[in-house]
Amino acid sequence: MKKVMTIEGMRCPHCSANVEKALSAVSGVSAVTVDLAAKTAAMEAAENVSDEELRKAVDDLGFQVVDIR
């Protein structure tokens, strides 16, 4: 299933690369694309991947997840 997160706090390409790497490391997540200008991360996630897992991966980097849809 496709999920899109809105993330606050990313300010540079290094930030977006770290978010992409963290989300890609979550088991069941693939094809992560981070758009720094839009403040979003889009990904394909297996049905068993919870929003809480995704939120934690980003929160642990110090960014704030505003929305997951």
Structure commentary:
This protein has 69 residues and is α+β, with helices and mostly antiparallel strands. 30% of the residues lie in helices and 36% in strands. It has a four-stranded antiparallel β-sheet with strand order 2-3-1-4, with helices on one face. A hairpin with a 4-residue loop joins strand 2 and strand 3 (40-45). The protein is globular. The model has no long low-confidence stretch (mean pLDDT 97).
Q: Which terms summarize this structure?
A:
single chain, 4-stranded antiparallel beta sheet, 2 helices, 4 strands
Provide a short characterization of the protein structure.
By secondary structure, this protein is an alpha+beta fold. Helix content is 30%, strand content 36%.
- Mean pLDDT equals 97
Measured by DSSP, the beta-strand proportion falls in 35-45%
Count of DSSP helices?
2
Helical content, roughly?
A: 25-40%
Cα-based radius of gyration, to the nearest Å: 10 Å
* Strands ordered across the widest β-sheet: 2-3-1-4
Major β-sheet, in short? 4 strands, antiparallel
Distance between the termini: 10 Å
Order of helices and strands: EHEEHE
The rough form would be described as globular
| Low-pLDDT residue spans | none
How are the SSEs ordered, and which strands pair?
Layout: E1 2-8, H1 13-24, E2 29-35, E3 40-45, H2 51-59, E4 64-68
Antiparallel strand pairs: 1-3, 1-4, 2-3
